[in-house]
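ping. complex inputs:
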Amino acid sequence: MKVLKDRYLHSEIRDAYLFLLPMLLFAVVFILLPVLGTFFTSLFREVTFLPSRFSGLDNYLRLTTDRHFWQSVRFTLLFVGVSVAAELVLGLILALILNESIPGRGFVRVAVLIPWAIPIAVSARMWEMIFNFDYGVVNFVVLQLGLADAPLNWLGSATGAFGAIVISDVWKTTPFMTIILLAGLAAIPQDLYKQAMVDGTTFIQRFFYITLPLLQPVLVVALLFRTIDAVRIFDLIYVLTGGGPGGGTTSLSLYAFKYYTSCDFGYGSAISLIVFLIAGLLAVFYVRFTGLREAVK
Amino acid sequence: MGRRYLDRVPRQTRIDAFGALHHITASERRLIFGMKSTTLYLLVMLAVLLTGCADHEKKITFWIGGAPQEVDYWEALVDEFERTSGITVDLIRQPSSTDQRKQGLVISLEAEQPDPDVFLMDIVWLQQFFQSGWLQPLDPFFRPDGFSIAPFFKDVVDTVDRYAGHYYALPVFLDIGLLYYRKDLLKKYDYSGPPRTWGDLLQQASKIQAGERSDNPGFNGFLWQGAQYEGLVCTFLEFTASYGGGIMQDGHVRLNRGANTVALEFMQDLIRKYGISPPNTYTDMREEEVRRAFQRGDALFERNWLYAWNLHQKDGSAVKGKIGMTALPHFEEGPSVAALGGWHIGISRHSDMPAKAWELVRFILSSVSQKKLVLNLGWYPGRSDVYTDPDVLKKMPYAGLLREIFSRAVTRPNLPYYDQVSDVIQRTVNGCLAGKQPPAAALHRMQSEIDQIAEIYSR
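pong. complex structure:
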């Protein structure tokens, strides 16, 4: 009997691997190999106009003394922190509102998704026009309200450009947060709320003792997605500010890209790998320290 | 039932993988519809592969810029070439942004693709492309063909197109920085002509700006390119070299010079001390922003490239017929200098039919085609003999002046790692104009950063 059971389990496991094989192959070919390839390239002096040769960790040593690289690291991390936090708060508020049975809920749920459906390059162009020095609507409003005497150069100062990038990104990706959290909210049994109401709890108590703990796994997944996405921010900045002014809004991906186009593939790869490492470390952090692993189990 | 209906329609069109329309007959359709879908799929893939191969065996691929009027010019020229030579050319339109054009080329050339065979390059890429081994030497084609490079501007081809004794590219059209001025305003304030020195410019601009601002508060004395982008390297080069300084000395970048400090201080003062250039010079002012402001009638002087002339003289321009152009002013201590720009043509080392590609290059560089370039497009050819052509002189009264300026224009550093050098200059000069750093410190910092870059890329 035991032998039969063992044999059965064994074949089960074998079949499981068999069924997983296509996905594993996919992961190896499209995820593992490119990362390894990038790492490999970063160990070489791979500049189109110089003979290629193995240079060990030279490219990484160069990173340590590159002022512009550290500036990009600071900018990228600051951007991730500010924009993901804003998206989380706004997304949660929107999700809570849309979870209530308000009139026209179906319509509002669809309307909220619109920014998410617009391609990033298009929305970046749109925001560029909104912040434009000469004809932008922001300057128009500011001047009409008498908040300033002359048009303000929003994208021309480091703080202004940073603010513009965060606003555009929050506008674009809050819907993503909202929809995921909305799904999480829908999965919380209504009985719990009814019971809590019978016990005479306030709305605030119900939010902190029921909603937030039960929403946590979904919340962490949404945060994980958004954080990793924000670390590799490229297209929005490429279109909106081009990394300026004075290189003040150059994200790490944009900085790596600059070296790819100026034909230094080795150094560009080293920077790309740092982006990968930062995203990876943040992912590990989320999984380990937020109870996501327990929740999945 | 569907099939019977289709049979009655004698011809239908289908679209192939390359977007071309083809007619297919009823019998072909019966063949196609009668097949199993897998067979059909395999056949289609095979057809795509075969067409793909066949295509680049027969055609030369030529990559051009994407500006609308530029595309029109190339289409007409290539049509004529196809008719006279019997060689088919695939004209591929690249984006109009210089950076994006470079990205496209770098990807194909680094991957050793047989296409493009022929392409246009910005003057500052040439050294990098040559060092990367992406270009074919062109002189082996010269002699059997009776082609001569004598008519081309010698200084230009010898400084940027020639490496290790061979020509790897040739100029299709040139560009230089010029001073545009308002004839009507100079006359109104009793000036006999445009400024020759920066001192003259300062004096004229201060007086006229003060006078004009009572009617037009947005009026500025002098507009130039100061935003953080490639154009700033050109203006920086022009200011410094017109004091006897510059970027390069004896083949090395030497920025830390007294002449450069004075010139950079003057650039800063134009905005911050004299106020004849507006504060958004260092945030917004690129070619087009400068051109549009001048064209609205909001400035007395403008530093811009050649292309601005035709646009200023168009109907609807507020300055039509009121402007002149001349060489850029200089300090007492140095000569008048114009930064050289423009696009050069070359053949890929990986081209699968260099001989046919050369035929196309030769056709594009012929004096007939180059004359069309200036007459139809208003762009200035790399051949100097076109500038003495009577038709050209009639339409372009400034051709003589330009020819003279071209022959003493200065080039930006001709280095394979120019991108990095340019990036440092852009950032630091822009920061200096914004008042973040005094000129001497900015030059010192640029020098040390560029020395580091030079060391990294010459080890």
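The interface with chain A takes residues 99, 102-103, 106, 110, 127-128, 131-132, 134, 228, 280, 283-284, 416-417, 419-420, 423, 427, 430-431, 434, 436, 456-457, 459 of chain B (CB under 8 Å).
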